[in-house]
Amino acid sequence: MRIADLQQQLRALGARPVHEQHLLRRWAQARPLDGGRHDAADFLPRPLREGLPALRATLQGLATLQAEHPAADGGARLLLALADGQQVEATLLPRDGLCVSTQVGCAVGCRFCMSGRDGLQRQLGSAEIVAQVALARARRPVKKVVFMGIGEPSHNLDNVLEAIELLGTLGGIGHKDLVFSTVGDARVFERLPQGRVKPALALSLHSTDAARRAHLLPRAPALAPGDLIEAADRYARASGYPAQVQWTLLAGVNDGDDELQGLQRLLKGRHLMLN
């Protein structure tokens, strides 16, 4: 389900833009739909007020907690069931962070990641992405959301950007605290600067050697590491905050002096940081 589908349901019940924004804000911030500054009996049109129980059930059914696996650092992996029975993971992070999924499965097939083992099953709608945040916020504060869970966000670009816009406006999360992670796709560098909300960027690089990177990320776009770094730096300077370069350190694979020298060469003078 997409946010546009929820908006259509609200409008069918007589919601005007002010009502729509009120309810979407309360959902994204994990607050009761019929509470707050406005009393529902006075503020919402009667058909919309009467439709709140069904709307609440729809929103709660977008992502439901199946299992929780706590970590020693205070984080926790959350296994979530979607309305169609498919499952994804969201991860509570230390310091009020949350990592969300954007797809069921993944088509990139990174050799160090289990998410792509069975390929892509389906896209998550923008409402299903926001629902992960709402569920987490009902448990504890969430001030930062990273799109680094199951799936490659650039392969579900419209839904991810819709979710980012809602979270960065009505959801009340700072733009630099919304982190779009990608293996690198030309569409990302074209679309991110155009959005109302401009998230931080995290580039999954993992090697400065093109052939080695192609082996590690077998179905990532065939863009040279230097070109990816240039595009990430350009966006970071346009957005005003540094981009992350993500690196999964693999013993005997990408931990040699050649990679260290490659990073020094590529990152020198850039508005980037290594994670």
Helix count from the secondary structure assignment: 11
Shape: elongated
Distance between the ends: 33 Å
Helix content range: 25-40%
**Radius of gyration from the alpha-carbon trace, in angstroms:** 20 Å
Mean pLDDT: 94
Strands of the widest sheet, in order across it, are 1-2-3-4-7-8-9-10-11
The sequence of SSEs as H and E is: HHHHHEEEEEEHEHEHEHHEHE
Oligomeric state of this protein: single chain
What is the number of E strands? 11
Explain what this protein looks like in three dimensions.
There is one protein chain. The chain is an alpha/beta fold and 275 residues long. Helices cover 38% and strands 19% of the residues. A nine-stranded mixed β-sheet has the order 1-2-3-4-7-8-9-10-11. Strands 5-6 form a two-stranded antiparallel sheet. Helix 6 (126-137) packs across helix 7. The longest helix has 15 residues, at 225-239. The chain is elongated.
Can I get a quick summary?
It is built from eleven helices and eleven strands. The chain has 275 residues and is of the alpha/beta class. The strands form two sheets. It has a nine-stranded mixed β-sheet.
